[in-house]
């Protein structure tokens, strides 16, 4: 389902940036149905639609409408800002996305680095941020980023560290203080830059 089919947004990508303006106040301004008084119903419906499509990752890492905006923490001109923004709106070069344009079935959009090791993994955001030992791409950076995020989460007693997944840690970031969000998203963005660099070299 396309975003405009949800009925509340008719211009989310055409008119402004969902990854920046992904918050209650901004989207309410754009929402025709706000005036009809059905905001919460539509918000829940929109979340459900986004949760199972192209924007899964955005919803997983920013699960609350009022979660801090990651892009606000990074200078707009920086490469980290640009890379993080692309990932938040799933406009990156992971195979899950490039395969979409090539009309490859989703289950065949596999990570080539893992294929060389005899493993079949769909190359999506969750794979790149998955278990620290899973994918050879940027694995040193993945282990380091996971360790640092765990330290932040532990310091604020936010979450259990019972998984080996960087993705799991990133999904807890919205629970941290504003200042820790700043540090955490900066860290995540640096990791994503490392991923993109390695993907570029592998081409
Ligand atoms: Zn892989």
What does this structure look like?
With 203 residues, the protein is mainly alpha-helical. It folds into two domains: 3-52, no CATH class; 72-202, no CATH class. Helices cover 50% and strands 0% of the residues. It is built from eleven helices and no strands. Helix 5 packs across helix 11 (178-202). The two termini are 31 Å apart. Residues 1-39 have low confidence and may be disordered. Zinc ion is lined by residues 111, 113-114, 121, 123, 127, 135, 137.
- Envelope shape: globular
List cofactors, ions and other ligands. zinc ion
Largest sheet: none
Rg measurement, Å: 17 Å
Low-pLDDT stretches: 1-39
Number of strands: 0
Mean pLDDT across residues? 78
SS strand fraction = under 5%
Instruction: Determine the N-to-C terminus distance.
Output: 31 Å
Helix percentage range: 40-55%
Order of helices and strands: HHHHHHHHHHH
Structural class: mainly alpha
Q: Given the structure, what is the number of helices?
A: 11
Total domains, how many?
A: 2
Describe the structure in brief.
The chain is mainly alpha-helical.
